Model the fold of this input.
Amino acid sequence: MASTSQTSVDLRTEGSRDGSLRLIFTGQLDAATTGTVWRRAATAVTQANAKDVVVDASAIDYCDGAGIALLVHLRNLQDKTGRRLQIDGLRPEFASLLDDSVPETPAEPTSKRSRRGLVEEIGEGVVEIWRDIQILVSFVGELSVALVRAAIHPRSIRWRDAAAIAEVVGVNALPIVALISFLMGLIMAFQAAVPLRQFGAELFIANLVGLSILRELGPLMTAIVLAGRSGSAFAAELGTMKVREEIDALKTMGLDPVRFLIVPRIVAAVAMTPLLTVFADFVGLLGGAVVMRSLGFPLITYFHQVQYAVSYGSLIGGLVKAFVFGILVAGIGCQRGLQTKTGATAVGESTTSAVVSGIILIAITDGIFSVIYYYLGV
Amino acid sequence: MSVEAKQEPIIQVEHFKAAYDDQVILDQVNFEVYPGEVFAILGGSGCGKSTLLKHMIGLYKPAAGRILINGQDIAGVSGDERLKLLQKFGVMYQSGALFGSMTLLENIALPLEEFTNLPPEAIRLIAGMKLERVGLSGVAGRMPAELSGGMQKRGAIARAMALDPRILFLDELSAGLDPVTSAELDQLVLSLSKSLRITFVIVTHELPSIFTIADRVIMLDKQEKGIIAMGDPHELRDHSPDPRVKQFFTRQIVGNLAAPGTSG
Done:
C-alpha cells in the first residue's frame, strides 16, 4: 500500500515450498501497464507445467478491465492443463469485476474467412461470379425493357432529371477531359518526334496523333474519366438511396426504380459521351499541334496531314465506341448502386466495384471493337 | 373490438412465414386489421417487426402463407392490378426516405404527378394542403436534408397521404425522436385516424406512443418466431398472464436477463 503513486506494475515469480508457483503483482494493473507483464505472466504460467499457480494480488492497488483480462487469461491457461489458479488478496471491488467476467473461455472469433481451403475459396469465387453474371443478365433485361418503353413513350422519361445529370456528366467533365486529352496528344507527339526525326519523318507525327486519338484514345480516355467521375457517382447516389430506403419508397409508390432513376442516367450518359469524345479528339489534336509548331511546322501543314491521315470512318468508329462505353459505364454504375447492401461500407464497396467493373468492361469492349473494325476494314 | 369484428377486415395475414435463406424469422403468423383502427406491431429488437411490415407492403414475398390487402394478395398481383393495390396504401419509412434530390413539396407532388392527370397548379395546391395537414407548410421549399428528424417523418407521412390512401403503414413512428416531437406525431396519427378514418399499421416499441394511439396490438417474439399476444394494449398490460408481455409493458427485466451483482 506504500506505493499508491506508482503508475507501473511489477511482476515477480517465485516457487513456493509446496511446489506451486507464486506470481506477485505490485502496482497498477491497468490498460496502460498490463501489456508490460502480460507475456511474462503467461509464459510463467505455461512453463509452470501443470503446477498449481497462486497469484498474489494483495499489492495491486488498481486494476481495470485489462488487468482482469490478464487474470482471466491466466486462469484459462491453467484450466487447459487441468490445474488450479488461486488468486489471493485481490481487493473486493476488483474481485467483483473478476466474478462478472464469466468463467467461460472467450469465444474464438468465428470469421467465415478463416480456415477455408483453396478449393473451397475457388468454388465460392466461381459461385459469386456466376451470381454476379446472373444479376447482370437480369439487369440488362430489365434495362432493355425500360429503355424500349422509354423510346416508345418518350414523355415517360424524366427529362428534367436527365438534363441535370447530363450537365454534371458532360459539362462539368470538360476540364478534366480537356487536360487529359491535351496532355495525351502532346506527350505522344513528343515521344514520336525523337525516333521519327532519325528518318526525317517528323511530319508523320500528325498521322500518329490523328489516328490514335480519333480511333482509340479519345473514346477510351473519355470513357475512363466517365467511369471514374460519373459511374462512381451513380453507384454512390443510388447506393445511398438504397441504404436510406428511398428505393423501397419508390417501389411501394409503384414507381419502377429502373425507369425512374436509371433511364435518365443512361440517357444523359449516352448523350454526353460522344460529345465529350468529340471534344477530347479536338483537344488531343491541339496537343499534337503544339508540338508540331514547336518543331517548326506551320499549323496548316499539320492540319492537312491529319486530314489526309484520318478518314470519317475513324471518327465515326470512335464515336460509336464512345456511345457503347457510355451505356456500359452508366449501366454498371447504376446496377452496382441498386445492388448495394446495408450500411456505409456497402456504399463504398458499390462505388469501387462500379469503377473497377466499368473499366474492365471498357477494356474488353474495346478489344472486341478492334477485332470488329479490323474485319470491317474501318 | 366487438364492433370491428363485425366488419370485413381490410388486411388479412394468413399462415404467414418469413425467412431469409434458411433462417426462419416468423412462422404461422395470423391476424387481421379492421378498417379505421390504429393497429400496432410490437416486440423487442430483432423479433421481425420490420420484416413483417416489409412483407405487408409487398417489398418481399412470403416464404409461405399470404397477405391480403382489400382482399387482394399483395405478393400475387402484378402489372396494373398491383399498381392499383399499391395506391391503396402509403408507407412512412423508418428514416423518412424523402427523396434527397427534391424539395419537400416536390416529394409530395411526385406521386400526384406520376399517377394523376391533374394540372400542375392543382398538384401544387394538393401537395401544399397535405403539408399543411402535417404542419409543415412553412418549409415546403426546403430540401429534406435541411429538416429535422421529426419534420422528415411528418413530411414522409404527408407524402404517404398524397394519393389519399385508405391505409398508412408507419415504420418506427417515433424512434430516435425527443418525447415532445414523438407526442406531436402521436397526435397527428390520432387526428388523421379520426378525421379521415385512415387505417394505421404502426411498427413501434415506444410505450407512451402505444398506449396513446393503438386500438389493438400484436406482440412478436424472437424465440416464438410469431405472435405471443394480441389485443388492447391496456388490457394486455394489466391482465396478460404471459411474463414476456408483462415484461415489455412494465419495462422490467425478469428471468435470466437480470445482471448479477449490479446492486452495488
